[in-house]
Amino acid sequence: MSAQLFTPIQRNDRQRGATLAMLVYDEIKNAIVSGRIKPGEWLPVQRNMEALLQVSRPPIREALTKLQGEGLLTAEMGRGLKVADVFEEAIASPLSQLMVSNPQVRLDILEFRRLLEGAAAFYAAQRSTSKEHKRLRELYQRLKWAYTEGTLLDAAKADARYHLGIIEAAHNQAILSVMSGFYTILQDSVLDAADTIRRDKQNWDETDRHHRQLLETIISGDAEQAQRLACEHLTFLYSRLSIAQPVLP
Q: pLDDT digits over 132-188, tens only?
């Protein structure tokens, strides 16, 4: 993991009345909530965290114990501490089961995505950096390759990663936290759409146009247009899946 994973605890932070352990706790928790450390990823060993946070080991140990007690971290013998997938266990896993037993839920998830991803596209157009623009271009090219030359699973993974890249570029920790935890469901949702899209060249051409225009609009900084395009894209997917799977009244 890179040195940018945590922000070193500054001297002026230590003068606010909070204990050093609480400041360390806040920094690690913020890294988890913001998605800098994702569910299932391992934390650096404590000696490396000392260097990253620029504090001694006792407050780090105290902060980690508190985070474990809250269920945000889990320990594995011989491996260390990793971020618990609380969202996956509480929400994503039951939703995955519902997607199998009730096909209507697949369409409900697209409606949910339309709400959050429309907002994410809006903020990405306002807040994304040139470095993130380069990253989104790379994700788009990988997406095109996956749909035209890769497997169905390649296409689903690349599509989900492209959309998550836009969410990351929005710099909204609440949206990122929800959608990062929702990643398995996002990939399953995209897998449904990818199967439908690949069967019909017109569907693929339209989907590719959506992805390309959304990318260009985010880079241009037109927030309202980016939001509209993101919503139109998911509305299109909803309509394609509704044809294959009739919507319940």
A: 999 999 999 999 998 888 888 788 888 888 998 999 899 998 888 778 766 667 667
Give CA separation, 125 vs 138, 164, 208, in Å. Answer: 17, 14, 19
Task: Report, as ranges of residue numbers, the positions in the chain whose pLDDT lies below 70.
Answer: 1-3, 11-18, 33-35, 85-101, 103, 181-184, 186-187, 189, 192, 243-249
CA nearest neighbour of 147 among 91, 92, 203, 83: 203
What are the start-end ranges of the H helices in the chain? 20-33, 46-53, 57-69, 86-87, 93-101, 104-127, 130-149, 152-169, 173-181, 183-198, 201-220, 223-244
Read off the pTM.
Answer: 0.65
Beta pairing partners, 82: 42, 74
177 and 126 Cβ atoms separated by less than 8 Å: no
Which of 40, 227, 219 has the alpha carbon at shortest distance from 139?
219
Fold of 87-244: Four Helix Bundle (Hemerythrin (Met), subunit A) (1.20.120)
Query: Could you give the residue range(s) of every CATH 1.20.120.530 domain in the chain?
Result: 87-244
Q: Which of 225, 237, 240 is nearest to 118 (CA)?
A: 225
